[in-house]
Amino acid sequence: MKRITLIALTVAVCAFSSSVTNAQLGIYGLFNTTHDGAVDAWYHGFTLGAYDHLINAGPVHAGLDVRGSFETGSQYHYRSFLIGPRLQVRPPVLPINPYIQAEIGFGGSRYTGGSPFATHYSNKFQYGVIGGLEYTVLPRIDLRLPEISYQRMSAVSSVPNAPKVSLVGLGFGVVVRLP
């Protein structure tokens, strides 16, 4: 029994120490569209972000994701900054890598009303779940097709009992994984 425990402990230490030295940093850019349920508007724009896989246990990778989105629609602008944990599975044989992440941060919208000198953004607390598939096309290049998100943002209005804003997004883009 002691021998099995010692072997299991040795394997666990080796796996953990190798995972720390093999952290995977990825930088990505996405084109995306988001539907804002509060004003029934569609935003179109881009997202820039990065992730770092801090724990690698075989095909399972866990880490942290940071992203910023900048989108615009007819007379509306939307932006967000989100950060959160990320979990990805990279099967050794398949080029398909599913991932899911939970994000928190802030988001805001701005109504321009046709004027380029509109009021400020209404930054509010935002949280959500994002998931998708990455397809490996070259050793360090992945395509994200698709990325789907569901997010909630605190009410933009200061009226008491104003409903939270539901945001549903769809995106696609490119990921560059750094050594």
Write up this protein:
By secondary structure, this protein is mainly beta. It is built from 1 helix and 8 strands; from the N terminus they run H-E-E-E-E-E-E-E-E. An 8-stranded antiparallel barrel has the order 1-2-3-4-5-6-7-8. A hairpin with a 2-residue loop joins strand 3 and strand 4 (76-89). The protein starts with a helix and ends with a strand. Residues 1-21 have low confidence and may be disordered.
Shape: elongated
User: What is the subunit arrangement here?
Assistant: single chain
Strand order of the largest sheet: 1-2-3-4-5-6-7-8
Q: How far is it from the N-terminal to the C-terminal residue, by CA?
A: 40 Å
Given helix and strand content, the structural type is: mainly beta
Total of DSSP H or I helical runs spanning 4+ residues: 1
Count the E strands: 8
What is the N-to-C succession of helices and strands?
A: HEEEEEEEE
Can you summarize the main beta sheet? 8 strands, antiparallel, barrel
Secondary-structure topology with pairs:
Elements: H1 2-21, E1 24-36, E2 41-57, E3 60-73, E4 76-89, E5 96-111, E6 122-138, E7 141-153, E8 165-178
In short:
This protein is mainly beta.
Name the descriptors:
single chain, about 180 residues, mainly beta, 1 helix
